[in-house]
Amino acid sequence: MQKKNISSVELVAIMNELKFLTNAKVSQIYQPDPKELILQLHVPRKGKQLLRIFPGMFLNLTNKKESTLRPSGMSLQLR
After folding, report:
1. C-alpha triplet 59, 32, 61: angle, nearest 5°
2. Each residue's pLDDT tens digit in the chain (79 positions)?
3. Cβ atoms within 10 A of the Cβ of 25, count?
């Protein structure tokens, strides 16, 4: 069964883990799948970081950039 809410303990853990992204700037946005979004972030003194987001399910940092040949309308609008 899928959870619908996130607890405050889980939220604090996520915030602590992603704290190094505080001053990051979005340099590129990819949407390889309608249910997936990848933000390419530039973090000062750390370089490029990829944040992969599956809305409503999970997010993670990754090294792989899976882009499509034609960007989706949403990713073009966000760019």
Report:
1. 25
2. 666 788 899 889 989 999 999 999 999 888 888 888 889 999 998 899 999 998 888 888 988 776 555 666 665 666 5
3. 10
What does the block give as tokens for 73? 């309308």
Global pTM reads 0.72
**Contact by Cβ (8 Å): 31, 75:** yes
Question: Residue 23: which of 44, 49, 40 has the closest Cα?
Answer: 44
Chain centroid to CA 55: 9
Amino acid at 37: L
